[in-house]
Amino acid sequence: FEWSDLEPVPQDDGPNPVVKIAYSEKFTDVFDYFRALLKNDEKSERAFTLTAEAIELNAANYTVWHYRRVLLQALEKDLRQEMRYITAIIEEQPKNYQVWHHRRMVVEWLSDPSEELEFIADILSQDAKNYHAWQHRQWVIQEYKLWDSELEFVERLLEEDVRNNSAWNQRHFVISHTTGYSDPAILDREVQYCLCQIRKAPHNESVWNYLKGILQDRGLSSHPGLLERVLELKETQCSPYLLAFLVDSYEDALETNNTRATLNQAQEVCALLAQVKDTIRREYWLFLGRSLESKYGPTAAPQSDAASSDAADQQELS
Amino acid sequence: EEEFEQIDFLKDRHVRFFQRSLQVLPERYSSLETTRLTIVFFALSGLDVLDALHVIDKDNMIEWIYSLQVLPTEDESNMQRCGFRGSSHIGLPYSSKGPGMAHPYDSGHIAMTYTGLASLLLLGDDLSRVNKRACLTGLKALQLEDGSFYAVPEGSENDMRFIYCAACICYMLDDWSGMDIHKAIEYIRRSMSYDNGIGQGAGLESHGGSTFCAVASLRLMGRLEETLSERELDRIRRWCIMRQQTGFHGRPNKPVDTCYSFWVGATLELLDVFQYTNYEKNRNYILSTQDRLVGGFAKWPDSHPDPLHAYFGLCGLSLLGEPELMKVHPALNVTQRAFQHLQQLQQAWRDNVSSCT
């Protein structure tokens, strides 16, 4: 390309530049010419080619990406080729915001999400928790209604790593947007799935967060038999998360039936957490114990033993 | 022979680290070009936390920051693009006073407007050269229907980070006309996850960074207690407090990282429960990521320090009451001293308004 007609535009930081980056001659040249094109808003093949050079030097420069998109449209460039281009760049720099935004724009222009799930799966195979990748995946699935095989994908990832919190989040995303959790069969299926994963890998905050998450608005103590299963698991597959679930279950029970017995059970678990099972959060569990006491203690229905229930009956009669 | 971890805080090294950050950086930092103003903020606010702003030339710094303001052109046709730039990368000639120069691609960036204003503030500037009306017009133009914000008027990704930037801008300028608070609050609520943390947007995985942005924004708006019930607040407290492993991580089952000692620590402080965390383990972790030779902090031990982790490592220590450090305002993310300067400024603005009417 011929560049001699263009006057390069240098950066000007004034007399006292701050956080100045020392660029090589090559870097400076590319961007000095880029700035010249930008100023004239030149729409040409040489401008398009230069954006690729600028991107290679600094893929985080959002102005270069925007200008490239302007050129893609003005010059009616081949968007399929652009998809190949952006695929390669994201593989090299999967934690850059601009490249994912660019891909989203190209997918939208093409109205073609057909490569997305496979591409994102590949990125996730290199880093299963890449937030950009999951964000792009959720956008594609929701925008183009590609729900059908996502639960299967989630289960595959959870088989690879049952502690992948991003995968658990995706599980919730898929189910809440498809079947939902209102159907008791679905809810029970999910509860059983969780209990199964807990038996395999008990020390896993993600599974307990998911279990609590799908039940908490209905009431943790509302799912029949769950409390008993958790108490069983407490013996062989205990964890701070199990115990926290227990405290929360007791608190949920207290909301509808405030008894000293239940309050004591909650306090016992708080004490166990503070003293033995989750000592890093000792002060928090003690605080929680105090909060429970002050919230439920004063109005708790008294302990149900012979002496106190006789006294209660006497009171009622008079 | 056991190697003991050294846990002494090397204040002077960190002062020098930030001083060097403000000078010349090698080419390998080129990806930071468009965000240089945020690096300036980390260094200046870092020096402020270290009570060492005296080592820099404040007036020069203030001039350079003002040169990044995108001011209205004579005909005001670019009002919706006003704010602050991240750097001179567009190539306009240096100018620290108006009027704005017309350029097809010159516009502000929401995070640069936020860090530009915060930097001016902590340098003791009175913001009198900020075109507030232009900044707020530019800000309003960035808000989407769903309540979240773009970073730039040309379009970009949108998420909780930019809601926080918008809230800080409105808070500092004492003018909420720059955003639709109700829509922003709705976006925040929709971003609450099933696990009680807050993600970058609806359906997304809860994360320490976005949880901070959401809670701090609500606090700045003065809407924290009215938006979230006591039960919801308790649930967020629990999610946040479970992030402590030694230091803090940003998501369940992820490794700890120094910067979360601030993102999660500050959120816990805003929710009045930071006092129940384990200070010793948190402090020991942050100091294990200290670079004893070069200064600064890294995300992990034996990794390279950078201005972001250096700044948030210090803020994490400040929350813990580290003796040589200034206190940090957990919502606005500047020193309490800078915050008080802002309050005085805003009082003067209100006095001026009432004396004119």
UniProtKB/TrEMBL annotation, chain A:
Cofactor(s) this protein requires: Mg(2+)
Region (Disordered): 295-318
Compositionally biased residues, Low complexity: 300-318
Molecular function terms from GO: CAAX-protein geranylgeranyltransferase activity; protein farnesyltransferase activity
Keyword Nuclease on entry: no
The enzyme's E.C. designation: 2.5.1.58, 2.5.1.59
GO cellular component, one term: CAAX-protein geranylgeranyltransferase complex
Keywords: Magnesium, Prenyltransferase, Repeat, Transferase
PROSITE patterns (UniProt xref): PFTA (PS51147)
Keyword Membrane attributed: no
Family: Belongs to the protein prenyltransferase subunit alpha family.
Protein name (Swiss-Prot/TrEMBL): Protein farnesyltransferase/geranylgeranyltransferase type-1 subunit alpha
TrEMBL record, chain B:
EC number: 2.5.1.59
Pfam families: Prenyltrans
Domain Prenyltransferase alpha-alpha toroid: 9-334
GO molecular function annotation: CAAX-protein geranylgeranyltransferase activity; metal ion binding
Gene Ontology CC entries for this record: CAAX-protein geranylgeranyltransferase complex
Presence of the UniProt keyword Metal-binding in the record: yes
Keyword Transferase part of the UniProt annotation: yes
Cofactor: Zn(2+); Mg(2+)
Keywords linked to the UniProt accession: Magnesium, Metal-binding, Prenyltransferase, Repeat, Transferase, Zinc
Membership in a protein family: Belongs to the protein prenyltransferase subunit beta family.
Protein name per UniProt: Geranylgeranyl transferase type-1 subunit beta
Protein's organism: Gadus morhua
Source species taxonomy: Eukaryota, Metazoa, Chordata, Craniata, Vertebrata
